[in-house]
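A.,

Following up on our hallway conversation. C-alpha cells first:
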C-alpha cells in the first residue's frame, strides 16, 4: 500500500498543488509527532521510544524497498553500511535528546527549539564541507538568538531555560550534523538504502541505551493509547511523512518546499495548544515568531536569491556557477 501511494505521488500527471499539499501534510505529521512524544514519553522511556520507532520504521521501509536494498548492498554493501551506521548514530543522538528533552519542556518549546537546526546548519557546514555562511544565515542566527531569549524570559527581567530546553537545543545540534553528513555521504549512495540502515542502527542504539539506563517497559501491559502513539511515530512520522516529502521535494521549487516544511514548528505549537492545553504567553509568542522568521530567512531567501541568479545567468547566456544544492534538501532523507 505504501509503495503504491508513493508511486502515485511521483506521477507526472499530478498538479503542482498536490505536491505542495504533500509537503504540508508531512510537516503536519511531524508537528503532531512532537505532541505524541510529549504525551507518551512519561509512560514510555525515551531511549526505548527511539528503539521501537526506528527499528519498526527500518523494517517497514526495508520490506517496501527490498529489491533495491538487496541489489545495492550486493554492489556496495561495505560503503552503505559504514555511512548508514554513522548517520544512524547521529539520528539516535538527535531523537534521543529530543525525546528526553520533552520530559522537562513543553511540546511548543520543543517544536521551535528543535527546528533551530535549520539555522545552525550553515555554520556547521563551514567546518564539514568548507562552505561559508551567507549574510542571510547571520541575520537568521541573530533573529533566532533573540527568539530563544524570549522563550527563556520568565518575567521581571529574569531569563531561564529549563533542563529540557537545553537538551532539546542539543538535539538541534545533532540534527544539524545529521543533515550535513547526509549531504556529504549522498553522492554515489542509494538514499533509500542509507535510510533503512540508519533507521535500524538508531533503533538498535535506542534499545541498547534503554537496556543500560532505563527501566524496561512492560510491553504486555501497555495502555492502548501508548500502542497507538508508538504506531503513529513508527508508521506515520517515520515512514509515510518521509515518503511524502521525498516524493514531493523533487517536484516543488526548493525555496517553496523549504517554506512549506518549515511550518512543522507551527503545526507543533497549534497541536500543543489544541490537544495538550499549553498556554502561549506574549513572550513565547514573540520568541516563536522570531525563530520562525529566522527559519524563513535561512531557508527561503537564499534559495530565492540563487534561483534569481540562475535565471539571470540563463537570460544573459552566461555559465551558471556550479554550487551544491541547498543542504536543507538533505533533510528529505533523515526524518
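Then the amino acids I'd put at each of the 335 positions:
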Amino acid at each position: 500500500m505504501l509503495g503504491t501511494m508513493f508511486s502515485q505521488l511521483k506521477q507526472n500527471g499530478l498538479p503542482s498543488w498536490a505536491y505542495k499539499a504533500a509537503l504540508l501534510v508531512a510537516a503536519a505529521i511531524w508537528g503532531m509527532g512532537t505532541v505524541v512524544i510529549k504525551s507518551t514519553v512519561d509512560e514510555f522511556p525515551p531511549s526505548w521510544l527511539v528503539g521501537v520507532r526506528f527499528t519498526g520504521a527500518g523494517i517497514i521501509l526495508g520490506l517496501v524497498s527490498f529489491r533495491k536494498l538487496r541489489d545495492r548492498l550486493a554492489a556496495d554493501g561495505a560503503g552503505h553500511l559504514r555511512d548508514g551506521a554513522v548517520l544512524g548514530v547521529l539520528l539516535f543522538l538527535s531523537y534521543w535528546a529530543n525525546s528526553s528533552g520533552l520530559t522537562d519542556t513543553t511540546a511548543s518549546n520543543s517544536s521551535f527549539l528543535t527546528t533551530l537546526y535549520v539555522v545552525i546548519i550553515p555554520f556547521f557546514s563551514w567546518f564539514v564541507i568548507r562552505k561559508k555562511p551567507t549574510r542571510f544565515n547571520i541575520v537568521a542566527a541573530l533573529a533566532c538568538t533573540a527568539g530563544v531569549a524570549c522563550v527563556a524570559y520568565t518575567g521581571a527581567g529574569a531569563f531561564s531555560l529549563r533542563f529540557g530546553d537545553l537538551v532539546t537545543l542539543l538535539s538541534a545540534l545533532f540534527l544539524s550534523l545529521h543533515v550535513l553528513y547526509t549531504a556529504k555521504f549522498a553522492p554515489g549512495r542509494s538514499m533509500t538504502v542509507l535510510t533503512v540502515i540508519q533507521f535500524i542502527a538508531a533503533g538498535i542504539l535506542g534499545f541498547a541505551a534503554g537496556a543500560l539506563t532505563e527501566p524496561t517497559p512492560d510491553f504486555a501491559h501497555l495502555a492502548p493509547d501508548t500502542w497507538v502513539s508508538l504506531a503513529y511515530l513508527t508508521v506515520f512520522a517515520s515512514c509515510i511523512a518521509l515518503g511524502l516529502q521525498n516524493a514531493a521535494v523533487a517536484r516543488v521549487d526548493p525555496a517553496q518546499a523549504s517554506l512549506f516544511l518549515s511550518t512543522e514548528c507551527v503545526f507543533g505549537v497549534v497541536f500543543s495548544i489544541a490537544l495538550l492545553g499549553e498556554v502561549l504567553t506574549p513572550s513565547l509568542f514573540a520568541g516563536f515568531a522570531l525563530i520562525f522568521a529566522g527559519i524563513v530567512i535561512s531557508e527561503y531567501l537564499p534559495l530565492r536569491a540563487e534561483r534569481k541568479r540562475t535565471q539571470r545567468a540563463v537570460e544573459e547566456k552566461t555559465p551558471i556557477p556550479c554550487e551544491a544544492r541547498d543542504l536543507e534538501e538533505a533533510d528529505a532523507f533523515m526524518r
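The radius of gyration is 20 Å. Curious whether your intuition agrees with the design.

B.
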